[in-house]
Amino acid sequence: MPWNETTVVLERTRFVLEAERGEWPIAELCRRYGISRKTGYYWIRRYKEEGLAGLEARSRRPKTSPQATDSEVVSKIVEMRRARPKWGARKILRILSRAQPELELPAASTAHEILRRAGLTKPRRRRGRRRGAHGAGFSPSRAPNDLWTCDYKGEFRLGDGTLCFPLTIQDHASRYLIAIKSRRSTKSAPAREVFEEAFRTYGLPRRMGSDNGPPFSSAAIAGLSRLSVWWLKLGIVIEHIEPGRPEQNGRHERLHRTLLEEEAIPRRPPCADMTEQDERFATFHRDYNEVRPHEALAYATPAEVYEPSWRPYTDETPGLDYPAHFERRQVRRDGCMKWRGELIFVSQVLAGEPVALEEIDDGLWQIYFGPLVLGRIRNGGRRINPGAPPSSPSRDSSSRDSSSRDSSRRDSSPPAGKE
Question: Considering the domain 147-305, what is its CATH architecture?
Answer without folding.
Answer: 2-Layer Sandwich (3.30)
